[in-house]
Amino acid sequence: MGDNGWIPVADVAPELVLMADQLRSLAANGLNFTEDPYQIERFHTVMAIAARLTGLVHPELSGQIEQRFLADLDFKTPLAVVDTAVFDPSGRMLLIQRADNHCWAMPGGACEVGETPALGAAREVLEETGYTVQIDRFLGLFDSTHAGGQTSRHLYHILFAGSPGDTPPASPSTANEILDLGWFTPSQIAELTLSLGHGPRIRHALAWQMQPDLPPFFD
Questions:
Q1: How many CB atoms lie within 10 A of CB 116?
Q2: Chain-wide mean pLDDT for the chain?
Q3: How far apart, in whole angstroms, are the C-alpha atoms of residue 209 and residue 161?
Q4: Residues 132, 178: contact at Cβ < 8 Å?
Q5: Tens digits of per-residue pLDDT, 145-171?
Q6: pTM of structure
Q7: What are phi and psi of 78, to 5 degrees?
Q8: Coarse DSSP helix, strand, coil percentages of the chain, rounded to the nearest 5 percent
Q9: By CB neighbour count within 10 A (0-12 exposed, 13-18 middle, 19+ buried), where does 52 fall?
Q10: Which residue has the higher pLDDT, 63 or 215?
């Protein structure tokens, strides 16, 4: 800490760079998925803040950073997403019914900048179901182009197994995206209409539950 009580920029440079990257990701995603002129203006403001933060760490680039960010809004690479097969002590799997297609799926979603896949998986379960879970096992990496999904983005689905904690479930923070949720046995799951692409991952998770030494899947 400096003589005036302020922390030198060099001491917090990694945190500043991470914050800038998170803001840049938020702005780029927003600019790619909105046509609202007011939202576009806001996301450009967020991008400018990200550039200013980066400039604190790299002052030699401060005049170029925002232009570089705006020139690279959509880097073409598969998007990392996570799914979690949450099993209760009796072996039932936690599934959600999606509001967009009324089909059933494991809780999951896109990883956020700055979090590990396991943290992202636990966060998505909490947001979509209200359950706090322990991520117990990596089950596989599934390529969406091989799984029958119809998303417009090329996805890498990172599949985990998890178990619910002792804390009673809270109210899901993304309740508007979920019609229902429940715990299902394998025979009950066979009667459900599953969201496109989820079938292979759910079947692999159920197979792992029956055979815990099953190796992780990958395409």
A1: 11
A2: 88
A3: 9
A4: no
A5: 887 665 656 889 999 999 998 887 877
A6: 0.71
A7: -55, 140
A8: 40, 25, 35
A9: middle
A10: 215
